[in-house]
Amino acid sequence: MVEMQNGCICCTLRPDLIQNVGKLAAEQRFDYLLIESTGISEPMPVAITFATGDHADHSDHDHNDDSHNDFTYAGKMLSEVARLDTLVTVVDAVNFLKDYKEGKRLRDRPALGAEDSDPRAIPDLLVDQVECANLVVLNKVDLIAEDEAARVEGILRRLNTTARIVRSTFGKVDPELLLDTSSFDMAEAEKMPGWVQELTGNHVPETLEYNISSFVF
Question: Which of 34, 117, 147, 211 has the highest CB neighbour number within 10 Å of its CB?
Answer without folding.
Answer: 211
